[in-house]
Design a protein that fits this description.
The strands form 3 sheets. The protein has a 6-stranded mixed sheet, with helices on one face. A 3-stranded mixed sheet has the order 1-3-2. A 3-stranded antiparallel sheet has the order 4-5-6, with no helix packed on it. The chain contains 9 helices and 12 strands. The chain has 362 residues and is an alpha/beta fold.
Length: 362
Amino acid sequence: MTEEERPDRRRPASEQTGSDRGGSDWSVSEPADRSASDWSDRSEADRATSDRVASDRYGSDRSAGERSDRAGSERSASGRPASDRVGSDRAAAQRAAARSGASRTRSERTVSDRRPSSERTVSARGRRVERGRTRRHRPGRGKIIRRRVVALAVVFGTIGLFYGVYFTPLLGVRSVEVLGTKDLSQKQVLTTAAVPSGAPMLTIDLAGIRDRVAALARVASVNVSRSWPATVRIDVAERVAVGVIKQPDGVHLVDHTGKDFATVSSEPAGLPELDLPRSDASDPTAVAVVRVLLAVPDKIRAEVLSVAAKSPNSVVLTLSAGRQVRWGSTDDSPRKAAVLAALMTQPGKIYDVSSPQLATIS
């Protein structure tokens, strides 16, 4: 081993770093009142010194490696095997590289340690703030458990409410209200409606109730609805008679559709007699008679005693004082009504408006 390769060889003072000299360069205490500019100048000088020391050391290590290579080549020339020479050269190169890397690492550590304490403090404070922020955003175990308990309570509460409303009498029918009846009694409507008491309001069959009540002959229309919290409301519109048909079994009432909807023992006052064998909403003659009666002006209708027809095109009205109106079919009924009102201002017995363009009085 040559003198240059000995590890205990003392390096020149110019090659020694601050750590090799015992840190004498950095042990000098700075006055407490030095300004920030002095500190910045000192830091720049220290960094320049460290770079120069590292460069000198790198050059010294490189020179040592070259000398080692020369010594190895001389020994090889003296007769040593080639494998020993190669191993010696490789070991010398590795030692030189290790010394160079250690020097650079020590220099970088020295420079990093000389950073102002304010920078290190700010960095540490930033890490603490980041850790605190992470802890704040991460919910605790107790909070997670409370959230799960609340979610389960909401789910089971919703299921319980759904079951109570749809399958129990919790919101069941407690009363039925009937409106609009005149000739019908409320008992008749309630018996026909057959609303199940205590049945859940949301599952009650409103359409079924409506169909059952609408089957009553006197009912023209019906509406069934829920009146919360526990009442079913039935609104009924009864049929209104516009004429009567006298039969052996009694007086049959006929509405504006021509339907025979009820039979009474005595004839109601103010209703004309319909001279028909029967009345049905599907009978064209009965429908024509009813439509003509409704088309007659109100003032004249009050004087109508009876309406007869053998066919839908031969409607005849009998008025008081032996007068007669030949109407014909239901075609152009509004114009016929206007012409008849004008003709009735003239004396006569027969008023023919079957052809309104050629109306006559006789």
